Amino acid sequence: MKRKFLEDLGLEKEAIDKIMAENGNDVNAAKADYEALKQQLEAANTQIQERDGQLEQLKNATGDVEAMKQQIATLQAENKTAKEKYEADLKDLKLSAAIKMAVGNSAHDADLVAGLFDKAKLILSEDGQVTGLEDQLKAIKKEKAFLFREEKAPQQIKGGKPAEGRGTPPADKKPSEMTYSEMCKYLEANPGATIE
């Protein structure tokens, strides 16, 4: 989404900034997902090539049965180790992506802040949810607040302000001219009204 498109719609600068920030978060999330999938695909392709090579090696091997059994056992052990490494790398990649998503644009340097997380204390569930992430993020924000951008309170739009349920005294009488019963009746009909 381009800023000019929103400006042409006649939106105010503050609204455009908020829309662009939210769009940036969505784009960053999509990039993180893309990078994770890309790395998974590269790792899978590498494993396929390694196994194809191993199968070709076995096909071309000549010799006795015991030597081939030993070679098969060795290859199975190597494949198991490679699979465990792949799963650990994939978990680390998912945790890193989740951390960067949680940090988002709130940090001056997302990579630096991501390095402060203790991944050993994070639990990655089957559905991709990370337990313990919010607690660590809050602790890091508290301990090292200088690493994060200052959160700006939404600016208040100046100009006319609606009555917000508050009434005004009847036009024909000033509050000082009202009787006690008129004042009670008025306040009952207009809860939260202020009388000056």
Radius of gyration: 32 Å
Beta-strand content = under 5%
Low-pLDDT ranges: none
Percentage of residues assigned to helices: 55-70%
Average pLDDT across residues? 79
Q: What's the helix-strand series?
A: HHHHEEHH
SSE class: mainly alpha
Count of strand segments? 2
Kindly, what is the distance between the CA atoms of the first and last residues, rounded to a whole number of angstroms? 50 Å
Rough outline: elongated
What's the domain count? 1
Tell me what you see in this structure.
Residues 20-92 form a coiled coil. Residues 151-180 are annotated as: Disordered. InterPro entries: SCAF. The structure is a single chain. With 196 residues, the protein is an all-alpha fold. It has one domain (3-147). The chain is 61% helix and 2% strand. Strands 1-2 form a two-stranded antiparallel ribbon. Strand 1 and strand 2 form a beta hairpin. The chain is elongated. The two termini are 50 Å apart. The model has no long low-confidence stretch (mean pLDDT 79).
Brief synopsis:
By secondary structure, this protein is mainly α.
Keywords:
elongated, single chain, two-stranded antiparallel sheet, mainly alpha, SCAF, coiled coil, Phage minor structural protein GP20, 196 residues
Structural topology:
Elements: H1 3-8, H2 13-60, H3 65-103, H4 110-114, E1 123-124, E2 130-131, H5 133-143, H6 180-189
Antiparallel strand pairs: 1-2
Helix pairs in contact: 2-3
Coiled coil: 20-92
Keywords: Coiled coil
Protein name: Phage minor structural protein GP20
